[in-house]
Amino acid sequence: MGGVHDPKLKPSHSHHKDDEYLNRVITKRVALFESIKAQQIAHRQSVSGDPIKINLPDGTVKEGKKWATTPLDIAKGISKGLASNALISQVNGVLWDMSRPLEGDCELKLFTFDNDEGRDTFWHSSAFILGQALEMEYGCKLCIGPCTTRGEACYMHD
User: Fold this and answer.
1) pLDDT per position as a tens digit, 29-57
2) Where are the extended beta strands (E) located within 51-114?
3) Closest to 25 in 3D by CA, of 130, 106, 111, 140
4) pLDDT by residue (tens digit) across 107-122?
5) Cβ proximity of 62 and 77 under 8 Å
6) Which end of the chain is more exposed for a tag (fewer CB within 10 A), N or C?
């Protein structure tokens, strides 16, 4: 009957999956990520936690510690809801990851899915998660990105 899925039926198409390529690329990608992460942790441990002032758009000034306080910490201090929904921040006009420590006195904005910046971040991150899933399942190779609210997307080829 139309629309009923029969698990015994095999797909009419097959996908060539280059496991050797995928293992090499993904291993290299993970090693690069781990290397950068270790460098960042070492740097943070070597710097002081001097007091900083964080200025919010409503004029509120929050206290923090240089290289320790993150935008997520500030969001948690405002409300649990904001901390749960904030996707990206802006520090002195530059987009800033929510878990990246603040480096000094700054102007801080927090963005949720209700803002273009938040939606762009959500779709960008989601595109790479989907891309890796497609890489692993079908052997696609990521070639162009990112995905944003303005319609750009990640493209793949096999």
Assistant:
1) 899 999 999 998 898 888 878 999 999 99
2) 51-55, 61-65, 88-91, 94-96, 106-111
3) 140
4) 999 999 999 999 999 9
5) yes
6) N
Report angle CA 70, 47, 28 to the nearest 5 degrees.
Answer: 75
Number of H helices, E strands in the chain: 4, 7
Task: Check if the beta carbon of residue 65 is closer than 8 Å to that of residue 52.
Answer: yes
Provide the 10 A C-beta neighbour count for residue 36. 10
Q: How many residues does the chain have?
A: 158
The CA distances from residue 55 to 10, 25, 47, 50, 65, in Å, are 59, 42, 22, 16, 13
How far is the CA of 142 from the CAs of 98, 108, 130, 156, 157, in angstroms? 26, 33, 10, 5, 7
Task: Tell the residue number behind the tokens 């420590």, with chain if given.
Answer: 101
Q: Are 88 and 79 in contact (CB under 8 A)?
A: no
Instruction: Give this prediction's pTM.
Output: 0.75
